Amino acid sequence: MIRFLSLLVAGLSVASVASSANIAMKKKEGNLEFTFTVTAQQIEKAAPDTIRFPLIIEISEPLQAKDITYQTIAAQVRLNCKDGSGEVASFELFKGLGPGKSLVGRSTAAQKFANAQHAYLGKELAFPICQQAAMTDLVGPPGAALRAPITIGGTPPSTLELRVLQSRLYSTNAKNFGKAVKELCENGAGTFIPIGSDKINCVGTKAPLFADFVQGVGSFTVDLDTDDPKNLGVRVRITDGLSRPTYDARIYTALYKELSETLGILDIPIQKAKVE
After folding, report:
1. At how many degrees (to 10) do helices 159-166 and 249-266 cross?
2. Tens digit of pLDDT for each residue in 246-272?
3. Per-residue pLDDT reduced to its tens digit, 209-235
4. Going edge to edge, which strands form the sheet with 232-240?
5. Which residues make Cβ contacts (< 8 Å) with residue 3, sequence separation at least 6?
């Protein structure tokens, strides 16, 4: 990242400007932390499936490029939310944290990219930006090219962070929630295994949300907390086809979304065709 950022600022001229944000992502490289932010209100439609927006990058410590010391980058980005193509139309470098604090350099040479892969962007940031744009009807839903691969294994978060990631509260009962898990599990050719009144296993389901897992197969266990008569506490643990855990928030969000939708669908009465 540092080497790439240094290459990107090779031809600069001096000038002045500013910006702010509320879609954020952090990345670490060695002892440095990079914070990427975009203001949702500043995302604009540029063309069919394409948006433009200002992007602010703040670095935990100053970096050196040529004779310039900078700590903040303010970039203007165009992004196609279907295929991930686009360009960094221009960027400006600032001496301190935050734009507007002593501009030291500027480049107006456009840097084109594909598949949302650029030192200033990346799929992890491009995807939520396009999701936000889709919510306000600037573009359609993000294309597959912007979807970053689901991460498997790795270092788990702290126990508290893991509980927060894996836990939700539902306004339903254990029986109905169990039906939703069974429906989702078996629709993906998985094996539904209820264990007592407070634990459920779904083994080897090929539900679409596990498409990035080995052979598209995932498993999950569900622990139910029925102490509150009005709300059902749920904790899910997800593994891939090789029994490796995932700590990726996107897969947990997707699973809980599917379970919520399945709960709603099971409440809808259907007209069953009579067999002749």
Report:
1. 30
2. 998 889 988 998 999 999 888 777 677
3. 898 898 899 999 999 999 988 899 999
4. 167-170, 232-240, 218-225, 199-205, 191-195
5. none
